[in-house]
Write a structure and sequence with these properties.
Blueprint lengths: L1 E6 L2 E4 L4 E9 L2 E11 L6 E7 L4 E3 L7 E6 L4 E6 L8 E11 L2 E6 L3 E6 L1
Parallel strand pairs: 2-11
Antiparallel strand pairs: 1-3, 3-8, 4-5, 4-9, 5-6, 7-8, 9-10, 9-11
């Protein structure tokens, strides 16, 4: 079983920055990809950014040029640097990891961290 714990959310003014972090833990697991998703009230969860085991990244259009995803492969962490934040970025941000354990494939989510951007 793999667990994900996020940190770094909070309240920031428009134009400000936040850095989200997520750490994966468990037994006998490998990670193929890690990513960040978000969900605002009344909307579906959407992709923000994802990074593969090889370092390839994919960003949602709204994140391009403002957000940056990175991984520390030695610590099983993934960070999301968010700059030039807008009120419409307000949402719960979730960390996601997919990979394999000794018992099979997994697709796990963190508990989410609230990001609120004030105008």
């Amino acid at each position: 079983q793999v667990q994900l714990v996020e940190s770094g959310g909070g309240l920031v003014q428009a134009g400000g920055s936040l850095r989200l972090s997520c750490v994966a833990s468990g037994t006998m697991f490998t990670i193929n990809a890690m990513g960040w998703y978000r969900q605002a009230p009344g909307t579906q969860r959407e992709l923000v950014a994802v990074i593969s085991s090889g370092g390839s990244t994919n960003y949602a259009d709204f994140a391009k040029g403002r957000f940056s995803i990175s991984r520390d492969y030695t610590k099983d962490t993934v960070d999301l640097q968010m700059n030039s934040l807008k009120p419409e970025d307000t949402a719960i941000y979730y960390c996601n990891a997919v990979g394999n354990t000794g018992w099979g494939a997994y697709d796990e989510w963190g508990q989410g961290t609230q990001v609120t951007v004030s105008s």
